[in-house]
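Q: I'm teaching a short session on how sequence maps to structure, and I want students to see two examples side by side rather than one. Could you give me a first protein with its sequence written out and its structure tokens following it? Keep the formatting plain so it prints cleanly on a handout.
A: Of course. Example one:
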Amino acid sequence: MDPHFDGVLFKTYADELHRRLRFPFPPFHVLDVRPRDDYERGHVPGAASIAPERLAASLPEELSGRVELIVVGSGPDDPAVRAASLALMRHGAHRIVEFTGGMFEWELAGFPTEGDETQAAA
């Protein structure tokens, strides 16, 4: 990865995140910063649920290295995404990508989700 872009917040969209899930290079992790109930109803496949206020305590050691972290929220301009991104930077993350459309855009595009199917149907 290019060290000139360390500490810069990037943005991505549903189509690009979907492509990255199929071709995971460079390495990345998807962090879902929505409330746990929302996460359990449906999330981007493989995403980890991390509450923004507990980010420092929840951040695994390997995520603070040179791995891209894609931060997912509820929808466009979800303030939790920016709060989490800034917290990640403070805790040593180098490559942070904000998924600007959030789960709203993901579901609108018709991409698959993981989660509790019984809750999603309710």
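Q: Perfect. Now a second example for contrast.
A: Example two:
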Amino acid sequence: MGMPAWFTVHTHRHEEPGKDGLPVSFSPVADLFDLVLELQPEHADIHIKLLKGSATSAHTAGLLLDPSTMLIKDRT
């Protein structure tokens, strides 16, 4: 139907990622998704890490999610 959808998936910190950088439990269905982001909490910030997608990781390297507004902000 060509509709975008957003999914959230819980992962386990103790599990090492697969060769592609994706969580091992997610690898069997990874080809169904165009974009995969990891939200990594660190103190009061939530870092956004691109795991799969067309954008370069350098573009997303400085992005944070503001937990109070749920908006993306630049790290600088």
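Q: What should students look for in example two?
A: Point them to this: The chain has a mean pLDDT of 82. Also worth mentioning: Residues 65 and 72 are 5 Å apart (CA to CA).
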